[in-house]
Amino acid sequence: MGKLFHKGVSKVLCCTMVIVIGCFTKSFASESETSYDFKNGNAVIEVAVPALLPVILSDVSSTAGDATLILRMSTLMSNAWFDASAPYHPTAVGVYSRLGRRPLSESETNTNINIAILYASYRVLSSLLPQRTPVWRKMLTDIGLDPDDDSVDLATPVGIGNAAGLGVVRGRARDGMNQLGDESERAFNPMPYMDYTNYRPINSAYRLFDPSRWQPDLQRKGMGLYKIQQFVTPQYALTEPYSYQAPQRFNMPPPYASNHWNYPAYKQQADEVLAASADLNDERKLKAELFDNKIESLGFSALSTAISRGLSLQETIELDFLISMAAHDAGIVIWQEKRRYDAVRPFSAIRYLYGDEWVSAWGGPGRGTIRLPANQWKSYLEEADHPEYPSASTCFCAAHAQAARRYLGTDVLNWEFSKAAGSSHVEPGITPAEDTILRFDTWTDFVSDCGQSRVWAGVHFQAAVDVSTQMCDVFGDMAHEYLSSLIDGSAPVRRPAKGKRYK
Amino acid sequence: MGKLFHKGVSKVLCCTMVIVIGCFTKSFASESETSYDFKNGNAVIEVAVPALLPVILSDVSSTAGDATLILRMSTLMSNAWFDASAPYHPTAVGVYSRLGRRPLSESETNTNINIAILYASYRVLSSLLPQRTPVWRKMLTDIGLDPDDDSVDLATPVGIGNAAGLGVVRGRARDGMNQLGDESERAFNPMPYMDYTNYRPINSAYRLFDPSRWQPDLQRKGMGLYKIQQFVTPQYALTEPYSYQAPQRFNMPPPYASNHWNYPAYKQQADEVLAASADLNDERKLKAELFDNKIESLGFSALSTAISRGLSLQETIELDFLISMAAHDAGIVIWQEKRRYDAVRPFSAIRYLYGDEWVSAWGGPGRGTIRLPANQWKSYLEEADHPEYPSASTCFCAAHAQAARRYLGTDVLNWEFSKAAGSSHVEPGITPAEDTILRFDTWTDFVSDCGQSRVWAGVHFQAAVDVSTQMCDVFGDMAHEYLSSLIDGSAPVRRPAKGKRYK
Question: Which stretches make up the Vanadium-dependent haloperoxidase NapH1-like second helical-bundle domain (chains A, B) (predicted)?
Fold first, then answer.
């Protein structure tokens, strides 16, 4: 049985990856033809995630690299799954709802939990991306569920799912992220997730006034449009964490070498980035792309672990909520520190230091390592829309890994991620030269490569990676402690989250 | 015969519209099952345009509103079709190639012209959007043509098509638009279509230093990313026109009312925009959306005319190249004037004038006309990435209409464009309340609504519309004169285009 389950879910995960690369029309069509196996299925992996992924790529982040938005979605979704499945657990309680307890006979198969988590998903998704409501409705109707069933009868899985989903929606609507877009006393034409903290960059895309500080980059979007970056959701720093109270406790030391008055250190860390760029190879390029993509790196490593260890549906939900929450809560501190230090990215520092002097580095897609003027150098990946220090990706990986270690009781990971020849997004048709399997034996390896890949990619200095590697395990620990208190039922009742300014 | 042709092509045009709204996978699949009717088909409408449209929406402009890039694609494509079909015409010569003349027997059916224009399309598309080469290859292989056939044997349609396409590619590669991305002595990491003229906005997205001048807007992209506008292709002003020599001849008067020192006029034109916003109705909203979409308004009005008048394949090509060239060449002068005056958009002027004072206007999707603080007002459409004056859309429509009038010998248009209830992109599910047919009896009506729709949409002042309405017919006339000289064979041989700075 365990083996069959493993096989079936593997197929779906593979299908999920196919969806990611685009041919989701067919996939949905074939789903609607079959009736869903509620009894043995895992609707997280087989229904909810496949419905969500294409919309994340089309509406949220085309590279799956905009972590603050993606983590919000994955955390609220998995929170809703957890809360919806809690009544079917012997002791667990929800984060944002207390829905009673169902007789154990109702969780002998996956049927009730699957139904509950799908209704919970529907409520959360309709709140997070209301313009895609037709997609969320289809997610239910394709497998015979009725999206218009808004029962909150807690004796039924539909009612439990709806109540759990609505609880999360209410619980997080005003958590500080400005999901409703009406902060700053904005009553008309809401601007969801818009900064309401009045962040202003010191530098402009056209001029570097202060070489220590962040400079928005001018980035190409498609064939010929160029857009200037805006710090994405600076208010994430004010958002209420799940697993601890005060982000202020977690200060990180200032980025000494990013201060251009410390010239030798400033130059040295920039030179390290150029050296890493010159030293790129296929494996490093692929790892850079993998860890930039939060769905593939964070999402698939967790789902794949759930599958390979044969986790039950409830365990899959617990693990997924745990690792999402760990990264989500880690991000709050990271954004606090990013805003505090507002640190320069490598591209600005390298232009400032070297101008049109020639340097050795990666020379652009398909060009390999060459000599080129420093101000024509590009990092292998585009920088995300936020200041450099500390590295968010590294911190997410560290928190995620530590959470997984705590839950699974081991550092062993044994995750393989395969990339076909030429499947790189940066160097399509060229990289990798041969079919390649990226292998991560342990979570420690995963974190190490995740962090280092940000330097290889040219978007971070070493210090930003090191500080996140050293300081972010704690978010995995705290998330695990909070999850444990939810599972054993000792977690206190929780009021709807409030952004810091509202306290 | 004429009637059958009409019917068949109508079906394809309808299919094209279906493609625009997304389900292109199926459509391509069904095409590949049938063998293509080269003899009677019209490969412009049935093959090339359907292959191109989805890529324009995914890679070039998601709203089909970024005119400078779209016009470049449509003009170079139709130029290639014209040059590829010229040898099959009794007298015509190509713009960028002189490929001899084929016996009339070779153009008794559409077969040779269809083959020639598809190879020409393939060469141009592979140059304009090389990253989509697999799509362009599939366009050929789906109907049994071999993309690897790079013959330039001018006794064959394949050779003629390849030679014509390559001629256009060479002819326009350095026309000033920076397609290769290597202007400003940029030898590495090319930035295609990047400004190389050093345009810098006076205002920032955060602060209006000069209320007369253009302010880049901060716009939401998807769920929660915000990006700051960058003036799109300011170098369009330096690009070589097809149909005249010196853009400097076509100066437009300064936008008096956009100068905030002329306060009463400045206030009055802003008040007019607010009044138009308050006066929106379903018809105006739909027209605003129609004319913002350059594929639907410019492209479909021309193709639909070709179909309804039963134009032959060669006539369809002539008309399409003519109207594309007219708008393309008009845009060069418009960009020259936009850059010269760098004029403020309504959103900035209205915020400057009224701050948080309450005004009456459209209140956002589904809100109708309400009272709201001026600095929370939004225009019905997002502004495109360029200064306000003069109106580019109006000038494109005027040049397009005049070109069509000259070619067809009449102002009569009789074009209907139907929109299903709730099909608005701005107010989906709400607007229009009922299925609606937008009807344009004459090209004069078309231009009038096109221009006025920019004020209804809140993105232009009246003066910018009026000046374009008055001054842009000439671009239709000049394009028609140049086309006539190409058709009768009197046009001089032309060297590859050069941007102005290279002269």
Answer: 322-489
